[in-house]
TrEMBL record:
Domain of life per record: Bacteria
InterPro entries the UniProt entry points to: IDEAL_dom
Pfam families, per database record: IDEAL (PF08858)
Residues in IDEAL domain copies: 77-98
Full protein name: IDEAL domain-containing protein
Length: 129
């Protein structure tokens, strides 16, 4: 369900500040009357902006799509969290998921090494021998 302007608190956004800085962050506040959002900046081409909250007009930001893929680094972070919360079943599930992904990656690497892509050795029919 989308809130005002198609944005909600917590949405990840990409945008450009009034100073021209490219930013990526998440929405902390929406001001409907002024048509503005407050964004906590996670990444920016201006390092001084990272970690700050900046106000932006709602039409200066674009909502980023929600990613459903989890990479190995994120899985490792979740494993750490499972250990901290002492959730054994979650730890086992995440470890199995990580091991399955690592096994699949090794199989693909081995397959690519066994059957390398080669250039086409058939000569052009118009070229001389």
């Amino acid at each position: 369900m989308s809130g005002e302007f198609g944005l909600e608190i917590g949405d990840w956004v990409l945008g450009k500040s009034r100073n021209g800085e490219l930013i990526r962050g998440y929405i902390e506040k929406i001001d409907i009357l002024q048509g503005a959002v407050k964004v906590f900046v996670i990444e920016s081409d201006n390092e001084k902006t990272i970690g700050k909250r900046i106000g932006m007009l709602h039409n200066w930001v674009e909502k980023l799509p929600v990613s459903t893929k989890v990479n190995d680094g994120q899985t490792l972070d979740l494993i750490d969290l499972a250990l901290l919360t002492r959730d054994e079943q979650w730890f086992i599930d995440l470890s199995e998921k990580l091991n399955a992904h690592e096994t699949a990656s090794k199989v693909m690497t081995k397959k690519n090494n066994l059957y390398p892509i080669r250039r086409n050795r058939i000569r052009n029919s118009n070229s001389g021998r």
